[in-house]
Amino acid sequence: MFYYVSGTVTEIEAGLAVIDCGGVGYACATTNYTLSQLKKGAPAKLYTYLNVREDAMELFGFIDQNELRSFKLLISVSGVGPRAALAILSAITPQQLALAVVTDDAKALTAAPGIGKKIAQRVILELKDKLAGEDAMGASSGKGGAAIAAAVPHSKRSEAQAALAVLGYGSAEIAAVLKDIDMDALPLEDIIRQALKKMMK
């Protein structure tokens, strides 16, 4: 299983980057955001997901682990394949995805080409259900998972907690990164963005 590919960018095309790793070129399907961070001839490291089908193997690459994590969450939704997940992450960032799920903003997801209202609503419903299930397990095991409410949040802090939980982060690490962020001074999306940056360090 590939975890990442690291080498030199040799080709950049629409939705695709080729990374030369020791003389082997790995073609990685990717998002517009990742492509915007790459430069032909420059070194790059992409976190990868290998999709194996009966008739093909496809490698997907992402500039950071937040994009990869969001991609894996999206393809876990019934009816959302890798290409649809790429389309969504080319239209919105991981923090915008989390925000859309928490605030029931299907319109944000339908901004992606080929993503209709039904798919958008399914993404929101299934990822919220996933969050609710994790909260229930956390509560039953005494780990405090229920502190991240699956119900509609009532403050920017609880909304940020729920959004980060949608992306798969645990309650302890969420609490640790949020404690030093000024909740009053920043809009919710910036709070989530700052928290994700801290988690990547």
Question: Can you walk through the features of this model?
Answer:
The chain is an alpha+beta fold and 201 residues long. The protein is built from 9 helices and 5 strands. The protein has a 5-stranded antiparallel sheet with strand order 3-2-1-4-5, covered by helices on one side. Strand 1 and strand 2 (16-21) form a beta hairpin. The relative contact order is 0.10. The model is unreliable at 136-153 (pLDDT under 50).
Summary tags:
single chain, 201 residues, alpha+beta, 5-stranded antiparallel beta sheet, 9 helices, 47% helix
Any low-confidence stretches, pLDDT <50, length ≥5?
136-153
Main sheet: strand order: 3-2-1-4-5
Can you give the mean pLDDT? 87
Distance between the termini: 24 Å
The largest pleated sheet is described as: 5 strands, antiparallel
Helix content: 40-55%
- Give the radius of gyration: 18 Å
* Count of extended strands: 5
Overall structural class, as computed from helix and strand content, comes to alpha+beta
SSE order:
EEEHEEHHHHHHHH
Beta-strand share of residues: 15-25%
Shape: globular
* Total helical elements: 9
